[in-house]
Structures are given as C-alpha cells and as structure tokens.
Amino acid sequence: MMIGGLAQIQPFTVPPSNNPTQVSEHKPIDQSPCPPSLNQVKSMEEFKQAHARFIKLGFDQSPRHAGELLSVCALADWGSLDYAWSIFSGLDSPGIFDFNTMIRANVNHSDPNAALQLYYDMVQSDVKPDNFTFPFTVKACAQLSALREGMQVHGHVLKFGFDDDVFVSNSLINMYGKCEEVDAACKVFEQIGVNKTVASWSSILAAYNKMGLWSGCLNLFATMINSSSMPDESSLVSVLASCAHLGALDIGRSIHCSLMRNFSGLNHIVQTSLIDMYVKCGLLEKGLLIFNQMQEKNKWAYSAIISGLAIHGDGDRALTIFANMLRDGVEPDEAVYVGVLSACSNAGLIEEGLQYFKKMQLEHQIVPKSQHYGCIVDLLGRAGKINKAHSLIGSMPVELQTDIAWRSLLNACKIHENIEMAECAVRNLVKANCAKAGDYVILSNMYAKVGKWDDAARTRTKMFDRGLTQVPGFSRVEVKGKMHTFVSMDKSHPQSNEVHEMLYQMEWQLKFEGYQPDTSEVFLFNAGGEEKIQALNGHSQKLAIAFGLLNTSEGDSIRLITNLRMSGECHSYTRLISKIFEREIVVRDRNRFHHFRQGACSCRDYW
Predict the structure, then answer these.
(1) Are residues 512 and 589 in the same domain?
(2) What is the per-residue pLDDT for 532?
(3) Cβ distance 322 to 304 under 8 Å?
(4) By C-alpha distance, which of 495, 476, 474 is closest to 551?
(5) Do 464 and 486 fall into the same domain?
(6) Residue 381: its pLDDT value, please?
(7) Which of 108, 129, 501, 520 could pair with 133 as two cysteines, CB 3.0-4.6 Å apart?
(8) Is the pLDDT of residue 210 over 70?
(9) What share of the chain is helix, strand, coil (3-state, %, to 5)?
(10) Is residue 484 within 8 Å of 455, Cβ to Cβ?
(11) In the structure, what pLDDT confidence band is assigned to residue 533 with cuts at 50, 70 and 90?
(12) Confidence of residue 23 (pLDDT cuts 50, 70, 90)
C-alpha cells in the first residue's frame, strides 16, 4: 500500500533466535521494535526521516502512531499542511483524533472551507464527533461568517450532548458574534451559568463591540469585574475599542493602569488599541507617546497613529510619520492610505494629497477604493475646487461612485454655499438609492440660508415622503468617569434646571463679547428671530458644555463627542466660551476634532 507517495511496506518478521533455551513458553520476550520518538524533531527534513522509519517498521498504519505522525506534521510550527494531507489521505479508516487534527490544522492555516468539508466527511463516515471537534469546527464557521452552517453545527452540539462544555460554548459565542447575531451569543453566554471563563467574557465583549453596542460592552465589563473574573488582554482590547468610540477617557485610562499593573509587557495589539483609544478620546500626545515607545511598529500601529493625527487635523506630523514608515520598510496598505489622504484633506494639503494618491497607485500598486476617492473629493471640495471634485467623481469607475463621494461633494457645497452642485449631489444620492435624511436636511438648510423657504419646505417634504427620519443629534460629555448624553432642547437630565440656568449665564457673557447668534440655517416655518435663537440655545452641544462647566473644576478640560458635523454657529459659540471661561474645550464631531483654547480652534477655521 502506498502512503504519501513513499515506498511500499514489507511485512515485519521477528528473526529466529539462535538460543531457543532463553525463551520461556510462559513469558515470551517482546522483540517488536519501538517507533522513533518525534519529540526531538524540529524540521520537516527530520520529520520525513522519522516518517520513513515509521513506514519501514510498519507503524504508519497503527492508529495510535499514525495519529501521532499526523498531529506533529499538521500542528507543529515547522510542519507542512500539504504533507499532513498526504498522510491523512493514506489512512484506511481515519478516526476522530485524525479528523480533529486536520480540522484544527486547516482552521489554523486559515482554510475554513477545508475544515468544514472535513467535518462533513467525518459525519458521512459515521465517525462520532467529540468535545474536541466542535470548538475548531465552529471557529471555521466564524472565520467564514457562515451563520447557517454555524447553526447547523450548533444543532449537532445539542444532539451529541456537548452544550454544557464551556469550551464549545465559548466558540459558539465567538461564532455568533462574528456573524453579528448578538442575541444568540447572549443566549449561549447566559446558558453557561456559573461556569463562565475569561474566554466566555472575552467572546461576549467582542460580540458587543463588533455590533457597535459600546455602552453595553462597558456595562458587561463592569459586571465581569464585579463577578471577580480577571480580564485578559483580549477582553481589554474590546473594552478599549468601546472607550474609543464613546470617548470614555476616564475608563480608558483606568484600563491602561490595570494593564500596567497586571501585565509585564503589552503586545502589539494592546499597544495599538491604547493608541487608538487615546487619540479618539482627544489625548493625541498620549497616543503619540505610546507609539514612540513601541520597540517594533507594524502597519496597524502606523495606521492607528496616522489616522489619529488625521482626525486631529495634524497633517504635517501624519505625513512625517508616514515617511518614517516607508523608510523603515513597512509596506502601507489601503487603510494606511485612507489615513494619509484624510490627513491631507483635514489640513488642506492639496498638492500633497494628490501626490500621495498617485504614489499609492504607481509605487504601491494599491487600486483606489471608494474611501480613497472620497478623501480626494473632500480634499478638492473643501478647498473650493467644487468643479474639479465633481469631474473626479465622473471619472471614477461607476461601481465606486458611491454615497461616500457624493456626500463628500455635498458637504463641500454646504461650506462654499454652492446650491446648484448640492442639488446635483442629492440627485445622485437618490439615484443610487442611498440618500439619508441628513442629506435632505443639508440641502434644505442651504435653501433656508438664502431665503428660499419654499424650496426648503419642499425638500423636507420629499424627505418625509420617502419615509426618512433624521437620527437625533446628540452630544456626550464625560464627567468623573460617567458619560452624560444630551439632545437638542433636552430637559430630561436630573440637572436640567441647573444646566439651563448656566446656559442663561453663558448667553449674558457672550453678549458682552459682541456675540450674535447665526439663525440663517434654522428651519422653523413662520418662526420669529427670538424663537430661532431659543432653538439655537437648546443645541445639544451647548447643553453638554454647560453641564461640563457646572460639574468640573476650574481649569479642567471639557471633552465632548457629537454625532453631528460642527456648524459654523456652534463653532463660533464654543470658541468664545473657551475664552470667557478660560477652559480648553475638546469636541469630536462626526469628521474630526476641534481643540478650543483661548478663543482659537486647532482647525484654524478650516473644516
């Protein structure tokens, strides 16, 4: 029989003894040879020599020894999956250990399709799965985001009675999380009961984070801590990502301290997560400090800091770090170039942005995606080159003329008050069936600003006729580790009376500075000037600033996050408040950061 292309095996016979009196008929001496040890094998060359010895001695068809050969070849760092396949294919009747080994090896080698095919073949061969089968089979489903197959395997878990195995349950939580079925993940998580492990918590935290349930992720993390479970690095990475999205700086800092206390050294993933958290929470210099202290920097670390510098409008330092990245021989990918082009756009570096757009294609052979084109449209449009931005969209491949490009053009039209081109952008968004309520609101406000009230009303009517509703604008401020969220005209907060009293005081202070509210973009039909001013004063960003001033000490920074793009009126308002109250006010809007200090903004009024 041929095994893996090696020579045919000859049957092994025991040579006759020259001294038969030495052999007892009651206690025969076992003269069968021992197989060579695989413990000392450190390379494929040594393994092939050992494999040949196994074949020569006839051990390659022994289930126990064949399984050992297969396991070492398939799972060792120096092993060969192709060679392992040749061994597996030569087995007459592979058992559960052999199937488990190959399923695991294919998952480890990022070939989940082969792993699932192996599981199917195993079931068809009437080989009963065990508790070692399911974790890697479910992981294969997770790698493919194959929900249907994952649910089928889950059914087999129940059928064969492994639903109370915590390792199997952890893999199911991870799979449902990757498939964005957080309710199913939670159900499995709860069924584990008191036997939850750190991996159980890590999997459910990752599921919440992937689904954008960041507040829920932080609440779960608090529950984990209260249950006396010690989080691992994987759990903390998910929590740090949630802190970054929410702007929860105090919680992020406490996690950083926990990492420093409990881990002797932080891996690249954790360090990159810390960089991302600090820059997205407004502490750019802290993120830069961690980046500069990294002994070895990979492309993910570079991508995190370049993107961070981009959203802070620090284009020059972003390009310097990118140059260092290329000098160090780290190859940039699509995500890095999105950060580079975004940095150029936010800093108004037009020529540099266009040069890097060409460099990306010519030197690094990266085909532009819709995000890259969107950055260039934004770069040109924000600089007032509206027609060039429009022409660029026209020259793009049709499949890349997505909402990203047209929405970038629409925002540029809003900045430069180009109603005709804004109408064109909205038409194309409608044509592509990706128009949102916010697009209609921008166009309606542009009409309102120039007194075209009928057009403004008509645009709002179209929005409602299409069943589109605008996501409520909110602003969130962190005070003493707790996030406080406000919406426009909000009176639901427990300190609502104090907040509105503070707003009243702020208005008087602003009047002494000569501040005049800009009501030109306020769309309230048949409303007078005073009503429009009241609507402006109830803006969520202003409520959050008032709350921050009330509940932080003199000289403390106030940090806000809003899901809106900073309006010109709010920008002027916040700039003056930072001067009057001598506070640094850091605002992360939908696109970038604004650092207000002493009446000036880090964006230099270019946003």
Answers:
(1) yes
(2) 64
(3) no
(4) 495
(5) no
(6) 96
(7) 129
(8) yes
(9) 60, 5, 35
(10) no
(11) low
(12) very low
Contact between 434 and 403 (Cβ < 8 Å)? yes
Which residues are paired to 560 by β-bridges? 477, 587
The verdict on residue 269 lying in a domain is: yes
34-51 as b/e, with b when 16 or more CB fall inside 10 Å?
A: ebbebeebeeeeebbebb
- Find the DSSP H helices in 125-266: 133-144, 147-159, 166-178, 182-192, 198-210, 214-226, 233-246, 249-262
Task: Please indicate, yes or no, if residue 223 is contained in any of the structural domains.
Answer: yes
Secondary element (H or E) of residue 562: strand 558-562
Assigned domain for 127 exists? no
Last residue of a domain, one of 247, 263, 296: 296
**Residues 506, 572 share a domain:** yes
- 178-205 burial string, b = 16+ CB within 10 Å, else e? bbebbebbbebbeebeeebeebbbbbbb
Final residue of a domain: which of 446, 470, 494? 470
> What residues make up the domain containing 464?
368-470
Confidence of residue 34 (pLDDT cuts 50, 70, 90): low
Which amino acid is located at 225 in the chain? I
- Structure tokens that stand for 54 in this block: 């196994």
Q: Are residues 478 and 593 in the same domain?
A: yes
Number of domains making up the chain: 4
Tracing tokens 């006759």 back to the chain, one arrives at: 16
Question: Half-sphere exposure of 3 toward its Cβ, with a 13 Å CA cutoff?
Answer: 23
Q: How many CB atoms lie within 10 A of CB 121?
A: 13
- Looking at the structure, do residues 594 and 487 belong to the same domain, yes or no? yes
The closest alpha carbon to 588, from 541, 535, 518, belongs to 541
Q: SS3 of 596, please?
A: strand
Q: What is the pLDDT of residues 578-596, one digit of tens each?
A: 999 999 999 999 999 999 9
Beta sheet of 585-588, edge-to-edge order: 482-487, 474-479, 558-562, 585-588, 593-597, 600-601
In a domain, 86, yes or no: no
Do 480 and 417 have their domain in common?
Answer: no
Same domain for 357 and 419, yes or no, is no
Pairing of strands 474-479, 558-562: antiparallel
Q: Around 200, how many Cα atoms within 13 Å sit in the side-chain half-sphere?
A: 22
φ, ψ at 516 (rounded to 5°)? -125, 115
Quick one: 576 and 490 in the same domain?
A: yes
pTM reported for the whole predicted model: 0.85
